């Protein structure tokens, strides 16, 4: 691991702050239409989705409730195992409620699949998954109902996404140089 500065470590910018803002506004407007009057419970999957989540919720001009769940994949590799550990569960009871799960990125899709199954067991009135970024091939897991951007199979950081905790506060999304994490 060789982390220096974003100028050195980012190979290229995939989406600028302006591109992200425009897309998130569109996604928020679509969700507001769909959920108007339903008081959806917006669920943020910490920590990666946090930046997207707060922008998305503010782009919805309808009443929403907010709640947070923190999960961690077992193991240290950058690949998901599909076994998810709940670090912090929701505070809310979701039974009978309209739940929107907000995730940052789908790689294998296993994290989302696990959470969807967990939440389904709590009997919400409805459930939708919204994800900012989607990689091309899901290794056994599921995709999201709504996606912000499709991206190539590369490791990206910024706008909430990290490598070893770094780069979450970059205002853009960029591809991390391989030499930083290999
Ligand atoms: P999945 O279970 O394989 O879909 O993994 C999803 C999780 O892996 C995301 O919530 C991220 O935390 C992490 N992840 C996958 N790809 C990337 C990436 O390119 N950059 C940063 N985190 C990633
Ligand atoms: Mg994540």
Task: Write up this protein.
The protein has 182 residues and is α/β, with parallel strands linked by helices. 26% of the residues lie in helices and 30% in strands. The protein contains five helices and nine strands. The protein has helices spanning 6-9, 17-35, 50-58, 110-120, 178-181; strands spanning 10-15, 41-46, 65-73, 84-88, 98-106, 126-134, 146-150, 156-157, 173-176. A six-stranded mixed β-sheet has the order 4-3-2-5-6-7, sandwiched between helices. β5 (98-106), α4 (110-120) and β6 form a beta-alpha-beta unit. α2 crosses α3 (50-58). It is globular, with a radius of gyration of 16 Å. The model has no long low-confidence stretch (mean pLDDT 93). Bound molecules: inosinic acid (IMP) and magnesium ion (MG). Residues 45, 48, 104 line the site of magnesium ion.
Distance separating the two termini: 7 Å
Attached small molecules: inosinic acid, magnesium ion
Secondary structure category:
alpha/beta
- Based on CA atoms alone, the radius of gyration comes out at 16 Å
- Give the rounded overall mean pLDDT: 93
Strand content: 25-35%
Helix content: 25-40%
Q: What global shape is seen?
A: globular
Q: Largest sheet, described in full?
A: 6 strands, mixed
H-E order:
HEHEHEEEHEEEEH
Give a count of the beta strands, DSSP E runs of length 2 or more. 9
How do the strands of the widest beta sheet line up side by side? 4-3-2-5-6-7
